[in-house]
Specification:
The protein has 349 residues and is of the alpha+beta class. The protein has 3 helices and 23 strands. The protein starts with a helix and ends with a strand.
């Protein structure tokens, strides 16, 4: 009994499917979305690996010796000129105080000698002092001026050292690594912290030297990683290969916040000169065992199946070679189950 019921159900479903299929083939219009075929200037492309890097990535070193008192945490966002680390400055401050006293003493000595010079000038006019005494005073005054200049220069050097106990950010960025911990002693030239600029990024890629002549500064190249596609602008091309790699380097500017620093991606590099090609969206291609085709709409909104061959591609567009012309309307959605000659209804996007 159950077997009989099953056979009946299969017959009913098959009959229903034939009715629906026949109705669709004879008069039912399929809903589709369309696009236009167009002629564009394109070049064949190859993919090369690239990496996203920051144009400003710095390891900041200590410029004075001392104990590290403070250091910004990893993840801290800093602006240009902000203090990132603080080194103990007690010894330098004491040297500054000492040198300030030297400057005051030199200033007092110079002031005294200048007044002595004026006094001897008056006495010389009255013939009460020898000219040699005046010359001696003037010589001492000149020496004192030099001493004062040396004292002020040394004070400026100490002030400069004092300012360097504060390590400041050379650009806007984020702290990504602590290379030493607070409380440790640092020597001059020892790396303390690393900061990275996340706003000004670039992609570095290397391609075979044979493609060098097809890449120029200012050229836009497609970038892709996973489902994310973007455009980079070639900023510079470094045409220096080696006997081992035979590659040149290209650097591309990209939009900020598009990719994280360190992201690997693919760069599409042209491999020959550009040429005119008739292109359609990739979604227009219908892949079936008998080959590749596209459906073109005629003036009566009937689907005409055209067998094509594919050529060069760029992003979502691909060249097609066949009975397709510039301006033809091709179906890009709903074309998987279409039949040649079937009427269609164009749906809004």
């Amino acid at each position: 009994m159950n077997k009989l019921i099953g056979i009946i159900c299969v017959i009913v479903l098959a009959a229903g499917f034939q009715v629906v299929s026949h109705a669709q083939h004879e008069g039912g219009a399929a809903g589709v979305r369309v696009a236009s075929a167009s002629k564009q200037t394109m070049a064949p492309l190859t993919m090369v690996p690239g990496t996203v890097l920051s144009r400003n990535d710095a390891r900041l070193a200590a410029e004075v010796t001392g104990r590290l008192l403070e250091l910004a945490d990893v993840g801290t966002v800093v602006g240009k000129g902000d203090v990132i680390a603080l080194i103990e400055d007690t010894a330098i401050r004491l040297r500054r105080d000492e040198q300030e006293a030297e400057v005051h003493r030199a200033e007092a000595r110079l002031k005294f000698l200048e007044s002595e010079e004026q006094r001897y000038v008056q006495l010389a006019r009255s013939n009460l002092a020898a000219a040699t005494k005046l010359d001696e005073t003037r010589s001492d005054r000149d020496v004192s001026k030099g001493d004062l200049l040396v004292a002020k220069t040394r004070l400026a050097q100490i002030e400069d050292q004092l300012s360097r106990t504060r390590i400041r950010a050379p650009f806007d960025g984020i702290v990504v690594e602590r290379l030493i911990m607070p409380g440790e002693r640092v020597d001059m030239g020892h790396n303390v912290v690393r900061i990275v600029d996340q706003q000004h990024l670039e992609v570095i890629a290397r391609a075979p030297l044979e493609y060098y002549s097809y890449v120029q500064p200012g050229q836009e190249l497609e970038l892709r990683t996973g489902s994310i596609t973007a455009t980079g602008v070639v900023r510079t091309v470094v045409a220096v290969g080696s006997e081992n790699t035979h590659q040149f380097e290209l650097r591309l500017d990209i939009e900020r916040n598009r990719f994280p620093v360190g992201q690997t991606l693919r760069v599409f590099v042209p491999t020959s000169t550009a040429r005119d090609a008739l292109v359609v969206p990739r979604d227009a291609l219908v892949l079936r065992p008998e080959g590749i085709s596209v459906f073109v709409l005629d003036k009566n909104n009937m689907a005409r199946q055209v067998t094509v061959a594919t050529g060069i591609g760029a992003g979502e567009l691909i060249e097609v070679i066949g009975d397709v012309h510039d301006g033809d309307t091709v179906i890009i959605r709903g074309n998987e189950r279409l039949r040649p000659g079937q009427p269609v209804t164009i749906m809004e996007n």
